[in-house]
Amino acid sequence: MKKYFANIIEVIKSFLKEVGEISYFAGRFFKEFLFPPYEFKEFLRQCYYIGNRSLFLVGVTGFIIGLVFTLQSRPTLQEFGAVSWMASMVSVSIIREIGPIITALICAGRIGSGIGAELGSMKVTEQIDAMEVSGTNPFKYLVITRILATTLMLPLLVIFGDVLAIYGSYLVENVKDNVSFQLYFNQVFNILEYSDIVPATLKTFFFGFAIGLIGCYKGYNCKKGTAGVGKAANAAVVYTSMLLFIIDFIAVFITNIFYKV
Description:
- This protein is mainly α.
- Helices cover about 85% and strands about 0% of the residues.
- It is built from nine helices and no strands.
- The chain is globular and about 65 Å long.
């Protein structure tokens, strides 16, 4: 029994230590972000890598989500004679919750693991140490640029995925009930309000920041040789996914307080 409680205490200590180190890493980001020099070229390169190269995956996923969500919802709405509410239900569900969290989880798997593996391999091969010796600030060049890029690109990816998801829903309705494009999207825009769009958009910035922060933290502090690179990439995905759900819960809770939705 004592050994069992000792293990629990050790896990709690490890968790609190990890939280403290991530908080310190985030504090260092804000501290160094405020002062020049700024690595604009590397920032733009990361925006291209994170944004442009993720468009296809996010777009396909969003489109399929719209198709499947509509096909699964139609039978239930038909039982209650409420198929005419399909456009309203799908648009609100996707804009508020499904689009942001699914896109963020996809990006956590693709972008977060990529950042963790990339920085981890640079750490174990001592490339980061070489940058410090040469007079370059590796934290500014490697960490700040990637965190900023994920923070700014994720909202754009979410918007792109939401649009394709709603369009996929429209295609199903057009095939099933011959609903026109204008009628469908009139219903979509008539139901959406600021309380749907603004909070959902704002929380995607926090999603992007979390993905970049955890990916950079795990990669930048990678240890134990090349085996640690795989662990850093895996841990980046796991930690980020957990943090995304926590952020999402907090965002929804705050939205319910201010907007009474």
